[in-house]
Amino acid sequence: KAGVTQTPRYLIKTRGQQVTLSCSPISGHRSVSWYQQTPGQGLQFLFEYFSETQRNKGNFPGRFSGRQFSNSRSEMNVSTLELGDSALYLCASSLAVAGVEQFFGPGTRLTVL
Amino acid sequence: QKEVEQNSGPLSVPEGAIASLNCTYSDRVSQSFFWYRQYSGKSPELIMSIYSNGDKEDGRFTAQLNKASQYVSLLIRDSQPSDSATYLCAVLRGGYSTLTFGKGTMLLVSP
């Protein structure tokens, strides 16, 4: 069974630009969560989608947004990029909504110059 | 108080030894606990999950959970150099799907 896929794997943007990252969960998984990982803050939760609905949102500014499609694929968007948005963005998928194992994709490394 | 705490390390052990990684959490309603391994430049890989008090063994890995003490640990027996990585402890509150991570413990296994 194929794992979680994320595209693109690497991105370089400049301040003020916007970016869209994509995630395809494991086949049959309907929950997709997004996390930001930085050396200073570690892994931090961004948001979680289940059946095209945002179920939870982390403590991030409104510049960070996401959505989920009917095939469970998800995208996240960051507008007006700041230098501090440079990070590894990770997508995780799981079978159900609560309490179960989450499996991570390879991540998208975003560099903001 | 940080929600999930881990010693940042590095924890250095010789090949063949037992590595013991520890994690404490502050939210008493936490119900699901996970250990992820992350190699440098890679994404986290799930290696163990534990939901009830006691020990859970999988190959060379044993996860231990003590909810009364709000403590979860990971033991790696017969440590190998390939086990050198950062180990992340993650916690789920009951009824929620948001993982809260510790900052990880770096493990170094020397040949």
Short summary:
Chain A is built from no helices and 11 strands. By secondary structure, chain A is mostly beta strands. The mean pLDDT of chain A is 94.
Q: What report would you give on this structure?
A:
The complex is a heterodimer of chains A (113) and B (111). With 113 residues, chain A is mainly β. Helices cover 0% and strands 53% of the residues of chain A. Chain A contains no helices and 11 strands. In chain A, a hairpin with a 2-residue loop joins strand 5 and strand 6. Chain B is mostly beta strands and 111 residues long. Chain B has no helices and 11 strands. In chain B, the strands form 2 sheets. In chain B, strands 2, 4, 5, 9, 10 and 11 form a 6-stranded mixed sheet that branches. In chain B, strands 1-3-8-7-6 form a 5-stranded antiparallel sheet, with no helix packed on it. Chain B starts with a strand and ends with a strand. The mean pLDDT of chain B is 93.
Key traits:
heterodimer, A: 113 residues, mainly beta, seven-stranded mixed beta sheet, globular, B: 111 residues
Q: How far is the N terminus from the C terminus of chain B?
A: 37 Å
Largest interface: A-B, 28 and 25 residues
**Proportion in helices of chain B:** under 10%
Structural class of chain A: mainly beta
Please tell me what the overall shape of chain B is.
globular
Oligomerization status of the protein chains: heterodimer
Number of E strands of chain A: 11
Largest sheet of chain B: 6 strands, mixed
Radius of gyration of chain A: 13 Å
Please trace the helix and strand order of chain A, writing H or E for each element: EEEEEEEEEEE
Number of strands of chain B: 11
Low-confidence stretches of chain A: none
The amount of beta strand of chain A, in percent, is over 45%
Radius of gyration of chain B: 13 Å
The share of residues in helices of chain A is: under 10%
Distance between the termini of chain A: 37 Å
Query: What is the percentage of strand-forming residues of chain B?
Result: over 45%
Figure out the total of helices of chain B: 0
H/E order of the elements of chain B?
EEEEEEEEEEE
| Overall pLDDT of chain A | 94
